[in-house]
Amino acid sequence: MSILGLKKKQPKTFKVKVITMDAEVEFSCEVKWKGKDLFDLVCRTIGLRETWFFGLRYIVKDTYAWLKMEKRVLDQEVPKEFPITFHFLAKFFPEKVEEELVQEITQHLFFLQVKKKILDEEIFCSPEACVLLASYAVQAKYGDYDPNFHKPGFLSQDELLPKRVLMQYQMTADMWEEKITAWYAEHRGIARDEAEMEYLKIAQDLEMYGVSYFSITQNKRDTDLLLGVDAQGLHIYSPNNKLNPNKSFPWSGIRNISYSEKEFTIKPLDKKKEVFKFYSSQLRVNKLILQLCIGNHDLFMRRRKVDTIEVQQMKAQAKEEKARKKVERQILAREKQMREEAERAKEEMERRLFQLQDEARLANEALLRSEETADLLAEKAQIAEEEAKLLAHKAAEAEQERQRLEVTALKTKEEKRLMEQKMREAEQLAVKLVEQSERRLKEADHLKQDLNEAKDAERRAKQKLLEITKSTYPLMAAYSSPPPPPDGTGLHLEAGSCRMDFKDTDMKRLSMEIERERLEYMEKSKHLQDQLKELKSEIESLKLEEQQQGGLFAHRGDARDYFFSTALVSFSLVTAPNAVVSGGVKPLNSVISY
């Protein structure tokens, strides 16, 4: 077995991972590939033709380096881990982005890289400019602002402002979003590539845009400084001020740049000016500075020459592409406008349809209500007709009742007149009865007095008769027959008997007269009671008729009540005194009264 057979076979390929600003791509590279082979593969993969702005950067110890195009990849100081990681970034920046950046992909990569540098605070930006740049970034990502779609909080997951700006003001995330949205709403109609270009046009005016900073020391005094390399030249800064350079060397004023180990020399084009020398701590940094100076100077000179055929073709194609896209955007905008108009018309038609449906529903409801109302009105008309008939009938009845009431009123007037006449007769009768009662009372008193006198005379006569009898009894016993009195005593006794007989005859006659008068009085009282009862029954019947007639003649009933009360009072006055009866005087309650 030969010694060559024991040697281990070397791999023919190796893996690399290229990280762009918006993607990660892995490639399988041949061992013999140079840096340009890998770079061209990446550019072809992403469709980039403006390759002179970009490069592949990798990390070396505590700094970074750019992959050299003319050397093999594995022969450079690339990391030894596989896959080897490279960052595809912009190495050189244009002076005027709108004139130099032709392809849309180039603009997009520059936009993403500059945006990241601003958010990472590698490029200083004022808060106002940050808000404006953020609004263009939102326009590039979300398109036109739509308040119906872009609700509050839709930017909560996006990183749009540097932390320094967020910490500088005491504002909430909602307040920042409101400010950004206010600017964002004004960018309506701007396409994504236009929004990204506007972003870059604002960013290229920032002091730290496109500047690569390196720590250096000046010769002799060993003063710490910063060297800035950009598209316009070299700049010397103080360590604490990266915005305003202390000294600048434009590319047009530099004759030569060279370095020897750690010493770097800048020779101005004007030989009268002093040569500027500075020192770097690492040789690798000096090589990187020199590489950036050469590349930026070449681009500076290239910008001031006529464009190459390739660039002219690219610009023509880009111009045509922009014109085509502009036409497409116009068509799209017109179609969008037409679609919006169609949607608005559709919404209007739907709204109108809903409105017509509502109107139809309301019309149907109104029709139903009208039908119900018509039925109700017909029913009411029928009821009104019936009521009219009923009212006519009631009117006829009322007319009849009125005529009847008129007749009744006439009758009532006649009855009133008759009643008043009867009342007057009753009053006259009552007055007569009262007068007769008084006269009878006087007569009764006289008769009573006469009766008392007769009783006294009778008692005296009896007493005297007893006395005479007692005085003549012995003589009567002595003589068998009484002799005629000589002195006329017998005549006196006979005269006494005649007087007694006379008194008895008067008493009988008086008793008969009293009895006769009592009977006459009782008959008159009974006749008066009958008249009063008849009058009361007539009054009650008249009251009942008046109640049935609704009290039309209530005052007439009151008058009749008054007359009836007067008659009762008069009758009471008649029967109030004591009445004379046979055998003496009795009270009123012994007489039949009303």
UniProtKB/TrEMBL annotation:
Could you name the domain of life of the organism this protein comes from? Eukaryota
Q: Which UniProt keywords apply?
A: Cell membrane, Coiled coil, Membrane
Give the GO molecular function terms.
Answer: actin binding
Q: Does the keyword Membrane apply?
A: yes
Q: Which Pfam families match?
A: ERM_C, ERM_helical, FERM_C, FERM_M, FERM_N
Q: Where in the cell is it found?
A: Cell membrane
Coiled-coil intervals, chain numbering = 315-468, 518-548
Q: Does the keyword Oxidoreductase apply?
A: no
Please list the residue ranges annotated as the FERM domain. 14-304
Q: How does it sit in the membrane?
A: Peripheral membrane protein
> What InterPro entries does the database record attribute to this sequence?
Band_41_domain, ERM, ERM_C_dom, ERM_FERM_C, ERM_helical, Ez/rad/moesin-like, FERM/acyl-CoA-bd_prot_sf, FERM_2
Where on this chain does a 1,2-diacyl-sn-glycero-3-phospho-(1D-myo-inositol) bind? 68-71, 287
Q: Which GO terms describe its cellular component?
A: plasma membrane
What protein am I looking at? NF2, moesin-ezrin-radixin like (MERLIN) tumor suppressor b
- Organism in which the protein naturally occurs: Scleropages formosus (Asian bonytongue)
| Name of the gene this protein is made from | nf2b
